[in-house]
Write a structure and sequence with these properties.
108 residues; mainly alpha; 5 helices; 0% strand
């Protein structure tokens, strides 16, 4: 599944304030690193409370970034699944984090 994160919505919000944009991107990156770690650990432990809460909190951000495949994948995860393979999620969130790092470098 191909995914190309976009920042056009955030560009419109922060475009005239590079410092605020940089601070936002740093906070977004930190939040997504934590969410990724939590999801990978929760998948290994089959912790559906963490998966559900994190899935819910990520949905608007992934939508704004055009990273709906992350939402789609997380939506497919169900408690009835006997084993979760988080490798696709790991790759997708790494791609999003790489895009954020690139945007930070261009905004600096």
């Amino acid at each position: 599944m191909e995914m190309h994160p976009r920042f056009d919505q955030y560009d419109a919000i922060f475009g005239d304030d590079p410092q605020a944009y940089q601070e936002f991107l740093e906070a977004l990156e930190a939040t997504l690193v934590k969410s990724k770690r939590n999801l990978l650990e929760a998948a290994a432990a089959q912790d559906w409370n963490v998966i559900s809460a994190t899935r819910h909190s990520l949905k608007p951000t992934m939508t704004l970034l055009g990273a709906e495949p992350v939402n789609d994948l997380l939506h497919q995860w169900r408690p009835s699944m006997s084993a979760l393979d988080p490798s696709a999620l790991d790759a997708m969130l790494s791609l999003v984090l790489d895009a954020i790092a690139d945007k930070k470098a261009k905004t600096a």
